[in-house]
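Tokens in:
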């Protein structure tokens, strides 16, 4: 017997479709006029429906937000139809900066440069332009430096639902680089 969607699930699907960007669970619960736990169950059921019907859509969980997305196997068709430029792989420097920020966030540019030992302003500007990092506010220190954190786009690109899914840093690690097994992430990364 085919799965049926409830009115709340139809509303959740419409909100996620129209939103485009990740929608916080608290906001979705507010719109659905229910508790956050019930809204999360609603999204889980909706995702099961999308799977069971073999639709080209999925709902990604990104920390405490949800985003409607197409499945990876349709990426080439979408790119062709929308004439999207091929993703450029990130440089080694960009991967280093992302790792430092991901494992230590929020961090300042000075912190990243202290670990790397080189100027990182250009790399960080590029990562911000690609919406992989964002400003996380200013510190209450002289000069009020900007702190940075990773974005939902970073999680989405790595196929993670939260930062807790990042590989562990080995004991005595250098404070920013993932362990050797973390190198497998580089092959999975699809940044635009």
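Residues out:
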């Amino acid at each position: 017997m085919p799965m049926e969607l409830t009115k709340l699930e139809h509303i959740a699907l419409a909100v996620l479709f129209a939103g485009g960007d990740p929608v916080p669970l608290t906001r979705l619960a507010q719109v659905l006029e229910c508790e956050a736990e019930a809204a999360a169950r609603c999204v889980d059921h909706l995702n099961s429906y999308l799977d069971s019907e073999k639709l080209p859509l999925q709902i990604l969980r990104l920390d405490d937000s949800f985003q409607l997305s197409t499945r990876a196997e349709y990426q080439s068709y979408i790119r062709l139809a929308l004439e999207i430029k091929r993703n450029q792989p990130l440089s080694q420097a960009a991967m280093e900066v992302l790792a430092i920020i991901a494992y230590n966030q929020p961090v300042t540019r000075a912190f990243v440069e202290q670990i790397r030992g080189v100027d990182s302003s250009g790399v960080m500007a590029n990562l911000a332009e690609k919406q992989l990092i964002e400003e996380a506010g200013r510190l209450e220190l002289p000069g009020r430096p900007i702190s940075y954190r990773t974005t939902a786009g970073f999680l989405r690109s790595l196929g993670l639902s939260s930062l807790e899914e990042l590989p562990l840093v080995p004991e005595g690690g250098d404070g920013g680089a993932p362990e050797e097994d973390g190198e497998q992430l580089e092959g999975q990364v699809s940044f635009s």
